[in-house]
Amino acid sequence: MWKKTELKRAIDFFIQGEFYCSRQPTTQLYDYDSIKHLALGTNVDGRTDEFFVYNSNPAHVIEIINKQDTKEDYWLTVFSDEKPYSYDAEGYTIKSTEFLMMLNLDSWSIETEKKIIKRVKTEEEARRINHFFDKAAIDLIKLDDPNLHFYVGEVNGHPASYGRYLLLDKTVCFLSDVFTSKIHRGKGIAKALCRKMLIDAKQEGAAKSVLASRQTGHPLYLKLGYRDVTKMWVLKKQL
Fold first, then answer.
1. By the 8 A CB rule, do 193 and 113 touch?
2. CA torsion angle for 61, 65, 71, 75 (degrees, to 10)?
3. pTM for the whole thing?
């Protein structure tokens, strides 16, 4: 059972990571007591704004959102073990259900795996990976960010998987965008990729990791030693 202080700390770390990784030149993070507002300044992954809510009355949340004059393409993420039915009457539908998870790296065992996992350090490498996957797998603009680390897993000399992590305040607070080519799935490459990132983060001084996992990645993170902190209900206003 998570204590309220641990739960709040995990949520805060996750939101900090979301802000850091998603930020654009005009991105701002606002705090309205128990509600946090990520104003991106542009459309990122299908939303211009995202509100994060923990332990707050739905009526109060909606009142705060309405005061912001926010565009319709925003998300509302509610941290709760139970489905937030109260938002149904206000026209919100569930976009996705995720899990906020935590891993204590102090007691985590380091086990290397016989997979080729490399940290992406040069623009040339990044462009090669992006060309192979035919998408912006590695963010060229953020490649030199000292807190962001990009990795690739290779099979027979070709990219097969990629991912990244963010290290802030001794916490790997955003391990996301882990992707594996369809032909290489189920072979342990994603697990090896995540393990390598965590090993490197621990060697850099990380003491814990906090992340949000979709349903598909949940079993993988459980195998790596993560524990569920709470569910995350990502809601969107029905137009």
1. no
2. -30
3. 0.90
